[in-house]
Amino acid sequence: MSDVSDHWCRSTRGEATVTTFTWTIEDLESRPQKTGDPIYSSKFLVKNPKEKESFGQMMLYPNGFRKGKEDYLSLFLNINNDLSLRVKYEMSILDSKSKKTRTGFGTATKLFDSNTPSWGPLEWALRSNIINNPKLLPGGHLTIFCKVTVNGTDKTLSGSRAVENENVTILTNARGLEQVSEHLGKLLNDKKFSDVVIECDGEIFYCHINILSTRSDVFQAMFQADMTENRTKKVMIKDMDSEVVREMLHFIYTGGTNGNVFKEKSKELFTAADKYQLDVLKSTCEDHLCSNLHINNAVESLVFGDLHQASKLRRMAMKVIARNLSKVVKTEEYQNLFKHRPSLAAEIPMALVEDNIV
Description:
Elements: E1 7-12, E2 17-25, E3 39-40, E4 44-46, E5 54-61, E6 72-80, E7 85-94, E8 100-101, E9 107-112, E10 118-119, E11 125-126, H1 127-131, E12 142-150, E13 155-160, H2 161-187, E14 196-200, E15 203-207, H3 209-215, H4 217-224, H5 228-232, E16 234-236, H6 242-254, H7 259-264, H8 266-275, H9 279-291, H10 298-307, H11 311-323, H12 325-328, H13 332-340, H14 342-345, H15 348-354
Parallel strand pairs: 14-16
Antiparallel strand pairs: 1-13, 2-12, 3-5, 4-5, 5-6, 6-10, 6-11, 7-8, 7-9, 7-12, 14-15
């Protein structure tokens, strides 16, 4: 039987860190920039293994980086820092279905340092191929997805058998929680042990009073009181569609969400989470709505956030409107905001001042 050391050491390259960034350039075809003139994205924090702040910024030359490249879009990634970072960058176009395309045309591993802070392809894409392809330019807007991977640095790891045992316990607990989520998910719509049904749009969901009551105070109150639902063991939901109810129940049973429904019906799911007091789901929906804010939906998101006490969404939508007021003010949504919700519209000038825009 071989000896097992009380202590150990291992030299490793360390784990890489990944940062993603999405940049939408509106009205690409009508951009006034000449050859050699770039459009700049905002700066974003690039995570790196050295645990020091580095900031990335993208630069798009809509009519080429220099003479002779006028027919191409030139795209560069700049990383401002005092470090030398070995970085793999991947720059793709998100098409009309938000799927990555043209991945590989802007992919490379380079050293970013004070001498060469910027890298990117001079001939990233033929301008005509983008302009004439509505799938790549939905609504005339180009959306670029950038993935930045910073390679890990050399590390010396050490430990003891006691620490290893602790790590095994943590891993075991994580696997246990994953298995619990999977098994509870299988209980949803299982008739065998179901003791209550939920009906919506003619669709029946077989559920369990204990699980619903544990996860939602609204369901708990419903099944404790002398209410119709408690007597009949049937809940009728008439103010939302079955797809939203299905996703809400999936979250109640597993703690997770299905991507497609979550993306397409995040507002409806937020409303359902608010009604049934599912705070984690509500917060997750609000974060998703905030991350997908843009000029075209800012007014609608502001009104939604105000109506549903989604303070984070309300605040961020107000900022988007304030920062793009010259464009937003021309829209029908903005005119309706002043007409139907004048008190909310009256807050926009203060947002301009607070954001130092005026």
